[in-house]
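In the current project phase, work has continued on tokenised descriptions of protein folds. One protein thus recorded appears below exactly as we store it.

——
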Amino acid sequence: MKVTQTTEGILIKVTVKPKANNFKIEQEENNLLVHCRSLPEKGKVNKELMKELSKLFGHEVFIVSGLTSKEKIILIKGAKSEELRLLLSKLPGS
């Protein structure tokens, strides 16, 4: 997966799948596949995505691009690429 380190944190590509039975994250070759429970209306999926990823990563998460798309670029504020890689290595299927 491509991780871009910036002065503000790290940027990663995320693909969102709404209307899932439960929230879960799968690692794909070049991005993360995130299954969200919310319906794709009125920003509900975006709110769930930022809330759950913030809890998982322990840092604030912002959507940088793709607010109305399933393909998003997120910023994990203050995070370092090494800690992200360690955390993602613990995901099922990694």
